[in-house]
Amino acid sequence: MLQVWALEGIPEVSPGDDLVALIGDAVDRGEPLVDGDIVVVTSKIVSKAEGRLLRSDDREEAITAQTVRLVASRTSPAGHVTRIVENPLGIVAAAAGVDASNTPDGTVLLLPEDPDASARSIAAGLRERTGAHVGVLITDTLGRAWREGQIDQAIGAAGVHVFEDLRGQTDAEGRPLVVTQPCVADEIAAAADLVKGKSSRMPVAVARGRADLVGALDLPGARSIVRPAERDMFRRGADEAYADGYAAGRIAPH
Amino acid sequence: MLQVWALEGIPEVSPGDDLVALIGDAVDRGEPLVDGDIVVVTSKIVSKAEGRLLRSDDREEAITAQTVRLVASRTSPAGHVTRIVENPLGIVAAAAGVDASNTPDGTVLLLPEDPDASARSIAAGLRERTGAHVGVLITDTLGRAWREGQIDQAIGAAGVHVFEDLRGQTDAEGRPLVVTQPCVADEIAAAADLVKGKSSRMPVAVARGRADLVGALDLPGARSIVRPAERDMFRRGADEAYADGYAAGRIAPH
């Protein structure tokens, strides 16, 4: 049985706030954490605590500053430009993960600088405070290729196996399960979104029931989920790649 | 609180089996279904019940037959070809969703012909049998662009709002939440995978705690999650689009 619930009473987070204290206090008002629990934290409050709120009237400028590589862009009939970019974390996301919702007017919120490090810090703090051997995921809401809508995914992880290790296991016919590598961190991030909600102030959830996934704080983080561009068949939008090819073909010697 | 658990004792499924009966019997041995529960069924057993097991020694041939459109392909140094294709359901998936794991040697399993219809049939049957107003999702394990590993996603849905409707809701600053469209069906599919597991014979899970997402059987199905290729910035692999552009550029008049 997997149980997932949101913590109530996490206040509005400000720069410098101690998330371990805020989360720990919220836990103290409800169900205590136990060994194997996974605490799932919306990146927004991590960014706020780390002071990643920037004064910027120009969200587009902030997106440009957070762009390592333009993957694809599209202009809507109304003139709205959507940019899918690789951000400094290697994550491919619309608007580079720059967020202007739930932030004061005239400001934008950048993703945490190193979400795996943030997760390690929160996990270490919660382990020390509660005595429970917990893991921590930091999540963001991400769009996808080929499918409409968004789902929450893990952008930071500590003390959690982000992939289920099926090596050595076999299917019901006795053949090795080689290809499948379930990204359990993303699955837990998605599950947590179902209880956190988007408009409510419930940025932290707890997932209980997969204690087998919780381990040492130096396990590979969510960075290991990011597929390097050179191995990615979709490292560039179809229109952009076509245009690149067209330009190269034009100048190729006949 | 979201609770997700797998049903125990679902037997090996054969063509013609009545999934409502198999799932209903498994429910009867455990926790009864209540209004608002969402039953999450691995597509593999739907395919098996619907006789989608094909005798085929050549999986590649079966993939070709299930290919509406080649999206991208890559050959590994060892000569293994990975094909990402759009299948007849519009779903972009590696190997078109053709499955050769957990099937007898010399056979492959195709996806259900119409997973939304399959979901409607199972949901109608379970509602009649149990008296509980439940929804049904049918899931498959899908890879993603940009991120390693796979997560379970919804390929069939009935009686479930596949997207959370945030229209009219505002963020904490009072601004409308317009862009975000959480794909809750995919999030529930992902959550269910955490209890079903890949190697165990637990192909059905129940998710309880989001009764607000359960509705009429004629709600839009999982087909509505599929982004039409013409609106998809990643409708073609980067290498393939580049090659198309290059070829077009070569023959363009100078």
From TrEMBL, chains A, B:
Protein name: Coenzyme F420-0:L-glutamate ligase
Gene3D superfamilies per UniProt: CofE-like, CofE-like domain
Keywords, sorted A to Z: GTP-binding, Ligase, Magnesium, Manganese, Metal-binding, Nucleotide-binding, Potassium
Residue intervals of the Coenzyme F420:L-glutamate ligase-like domain: 10-209
EC number: 6.3.2.31
InterPro entries: F420-0_g-glutamyl_ligase, F420-0_gamma-glut_ligase-dom
NCBIfam families: F420_cofE (TIGR01916)
Gene that this polypeptide is encoded by: cofE
GO MF assignments: coenzyme F420-0:L-glutamate ligase activity
